[in-house]
Write a structure and sequence with these properties.
Elements (H helix, E strand, L loop, with lengths): L7 E5 L8 E6 L5 E5 L12 H4 L15 E2 L2 E2 L2 H19 L4 E5 L5 H15 L4 E3 L2 H15 L9 H5 L2 E5 L3 H4 L1 H14 L2 E5 L5 H4 L3 E3 L6 H14 L5 H7 E2 L1 H11 L3 H8 L3 H13 L3 E5 L1 H4 L4 H14 L9 E4 L6 H6 L16 H11 L12 H10 L4 E5 L3 H4 L3 H10 L2 E6 L11 E4 L8 E4 L4 E5 L12 H14 L8 H13 L18 H6 L3 E2 L25 E2 L19 E5 L15 H4 L6 E4 L1 H6 L7 E5 L4 E8 L7 E5 L29
Parallel strand pairs: 6-7, 6-14, 8-9, 8-12, 9-10, 11-20, 12-13, 14-15, 15-16, 21-25, 22-24
Antiparallel strand pairs: 1-2, 2-3, 4-5, 4-16, 17-18, 18-19, 22-25, 23-24
Helix pairs in contact: 2-21, 3-21, 3-22, 4-15, 9-11, 9-12, 9-13, 9-15, 12-13, 18-20
This protein binds iron/sulfur cluster.
Length: about 700
């Protein structure tokens, strides 16, 4: 890896799951400039518009710099004493399940690790969930059902090597821009065919060979039809199916009954039959096929079934674990994958262990010498805020996320935050959520703290500090440990820095792991200070004494008890976004190219605001005409959960009967324009994902 000038620091972008390497430089006047890290294998020096503007987001404007209690500035000691006392008293009086943590894919792996350890091992509840629940929990559940473990088999190189890439529920051009550029470069080099499955004609669809504007929520039917077609076309890999899988006959039977022909699928999905046939024929004929899926698949009341419908097609053709092929879930956040590694979800344990295996619970309990090990899954995001609203969760700590805007049915979430007896928020800036905090704890931001993150292809990279921590802000891991010590758990939370936490995380991954859990980074358990500092980006697993496995599931063996992958027979369960005569438009939401989450960082950069400076509702010409709406009009949008207002953009990119409102607009930037206010809180029975 190339040496850098002393003034430049190698770190990782804090935005999307591509996980691009960034070189940051601080000038004598304090100004920060960034450039892409040519040595980082995720981006090879490229950055998108958001990443390129990172240097313009490091000012202290709007920063939380001092702890506050009830709006009054105070000392860390007073704030931490109060947090620890209120959590301890609540637990003593009402039990461990009366408290909850809602955390974030923005946290570093080391932060995540100690938060999870405190809640699941020492408080004795699993009421810790992350905003990644809204991003990729359906992929986690789908991977576990099919593979036995939350495994992303492939790497970004597979996109370079594929002949066909199917992008489903993924506006990759805007949401994972550098990955998309890499795909376009591969197409230039080898003629890769690109298919986009999305109700909206997105920027991604502009460049594709085939766009299927599928009706929202009909993905299972489309992929069940594909499975049936693969059988008819005679491209099932019988050797692989027989030796490496179970459940094929039932999955095929259900798929064939439901999706009897491309014509039936086309009618059910709102597509032209010729387009469905073309997709099926391309897929059947192309061995090197990668199916990339993202939030459009995951964020659904049937997200897990959609994931398994996709995986079924790859298992049936044996297209998994080999170069240029496989199902590939791309994560939305910079460390959604790292959170999965340490059990950041309420239904997971650390290091890819799970509550449904008592031996896993006991293993983690032994490793931590945990005095109060949680033994069952806790409240997932939507349920957690319901519990905060109805009094079951009496003390809630929100870390580095803005649920008052980003959660579905966000009006109810705001009511819950208001009524919850004790709310702590640790964050970098003031947000719509910090308004509800009884105690506000100022956290260190990107560029001020160090640790690791893991991107969509299982590649761990360092985030490194290059700025001093301002005011009295503290790193998240330290805030959590400070509270843990005051709650009486001091011996288990005496880390002197993120490296010590990382080593423990690595040791746990290898603890009593005899190859049955693929997540194993035991080779890093004794990593030296200098090596952690240097830490080139690397994939997991990194098992002790084993070579690093870049691609997983290469040998047709899976981390299930019998070593076989499981087909899951899935059915199309209605549509995800039901419409009726009163509310005839299905609203879709997603990202803008230049904004990130609730805009707390990107909203401060004028050039990122310039492209879309105000909330905009995209609507099809026919639907606009029927409502008398024209470009620039102010639309009042209502759902059964709330309302929003946005300027109208009439667009052929929208399928009639659907509309699109970006997810980003918080109360800081626009009154009543949050897509979360309109979204249904229905959630997936397996993953807890919502529509
Ligand atoms: S593609 Fe994602 S990780 Fe890369 S620079 Fe852009 S936002 Fe950052």
């Amino acid at each position: 890896m190339q040496d850098l000038p002393a003034t430049e620091v190698r770190t990782t972008c804090p935005y999307c799951g591509v996980g691009c390497g960034v070189l940051a430089r601080v000038a004598a006047d304090g100004n920060v400039t960034v450039r892409g890290d040519t040595d980082h294998p995720a981006n090879f020096g490229r950055l998108c518009s958001k990443g390129s503007a990172l240097g313009e987001t490091t000012s202290l404007e709007g920063r939380l710099l001092v702890p506050e209690i009830g709006g009054r500035e105070t000392s860390w000691d007073e704030a931490l004493d109060l947090v620890a006392r209120r959590f301890s008293e609540t637990i003593e009086k009402h039990g461990p399940d009366s408290v909850a943590f809602y955390i974030s894919g923005q946290l570093l792996t080391e932060d995540y690790y100690v938060a999870n350890k405190l809640m699941k091992g020492f408080i004795g509840s699993a009421n810790i969930d992350t905003n990644s629940r809204l991003c990729m929990a359906s992929s986690v559940a789908g991977h576990r059902r099919a593979f036995g473990e939350d495994i992303v088999p492939g790497t970004y190189e597979d996109l370079d090597q594929a002949d066909l890439v199917v992008l489903t529920g993924s506006n990759t051009a805007w949401c994972h821009p550098i990955l998309y550029q890499r795909l376009l470069a591969a197409r230039e080099a080898r003629g890769t065919k690109i298919v986009v499955i999305d109700p909206r004609r997105t920027a991604t669809a502009e460049e594709c060979d085939l766009h299927l504007a599928v009706d929202p929520g009909t993905d299972v039917l489309l992929f069940n039809g594909l499975l049936a077609h693969l059988d008819i076309a005679g491209v099932i890999d019988r050797n692989f199916v027989d030796s490496s899988t179970t459940g094929f006959a039932e999955a095929l039977s259900v798929a064939s009954a439901e999706a009897s022909s491309p014509g039936a699928v086309a009618a059910g999905c709102g597509l032209a039959e010729a387009d469905v046939r073309l997709l099926y024929e391309l897929f059947a004929a192309t061995s090197r096929t990668v199916t990339v899926y993202s939030q459009g698949v995951n964020q659904s009341a049937h997200g897990t079934d959609k994931v398994n419908a996709i995986i079924n097609c790859h298992l049936a053709t044996g297209r998994i674990g080999q170069p240029g092929m496989g199902p590939f879930s791309v994560t939305g956040q910079p460390n959604a994958m790292g959170g999965r590694e340490v059990g950041g979800l309420a239904n997971q344990l650390a290091a890819h262990m799970n509550f449904d295996r008592p031996e896993d619970v006991e293993r983690v309990e032994r490793f931590w010498s945990a005095p109060a090990m949680a033994r069952q899954a806790g409240l997932k995001a939507v349920d957690m805020f319901r519990a905060a609203g109805d009094g079951r969760a009496k003390a809630l700590w929100v870390m580095g996320t803005n649920p008052a805007v980003s959660m579905p049915d966000s009006a109810r979430v705001r009511t819950a935050l208001k009524s919850c007896e004790f709310v702590v928020v640790s964050d970098v800036t003031r947000t719509d959520t910090t308004r509800y905090a009884d105690v506000l704890l100022p956290a260190a931001a990107w560029g001020e703290k160090g640790g690791t993150v893991t991107n969509s292809e299982r590649r761990m990279s360092r985030q490194r500090p290059f700025l001093p921590v301002p005011g009295n802000a503290r790193a998240d891991w330290r805030i959590i440990c400070d509270v843990a010590q005051r709650m009486g758990f001091g011996d288990a939370f005496t880390y002197d820095g993120p490296l010590e936490i990382f080593r423990e995380h690595a040791r746990l991954s290898a603890f009593e792991n005899h190859g049955d859990r693929l997540f194993d980074i035991g080779a890093l358990a004794e990593i030296a200070d200098a090596e952690y500092e240097h830490f080139p980006p690397r994939h997991w697993p990194q098992a002790s004494g084993e070579p690093c496995a870049e691609r997983l599931l290469v040998d047709g063996r899976f981390p299930t008890p019998d070593g076989r992958a499981r087909f899951v027979a899935v059915r199309q369960e209605g549509v995800a976004l039901p419409v009726d005569a009163k509310r005839p438009i299905a609203l879709n939401s997603g990202r803008l190219r230049d904004q990130w989450h609730t805009m707390t960082r990107t909203g401060r950069v004028p050039r990122l605001m310039a492209n879309v400076p105000a909330p905009t509702l995209e609507i099809a010409p026919l639907d606009a005409h029927r409502r008398g709406l024209r470009d620039g009009d102010l639309a009042h949008i209502s759902s059964r959960y709330g309302f929003a207002r946005a300027r109208v953009t009439v667009s052929d990119n929208q399928k009639p009967g659907t509309a699109f409102l970006p997810m980003h607009w918080s109360g800081h930037f626009a009154a009543n324009a949050g897509a979360g206010s309109l979204a249904t809180p229905l959630s997936d029975p397996f993953s807890g994902h919502r529509n």
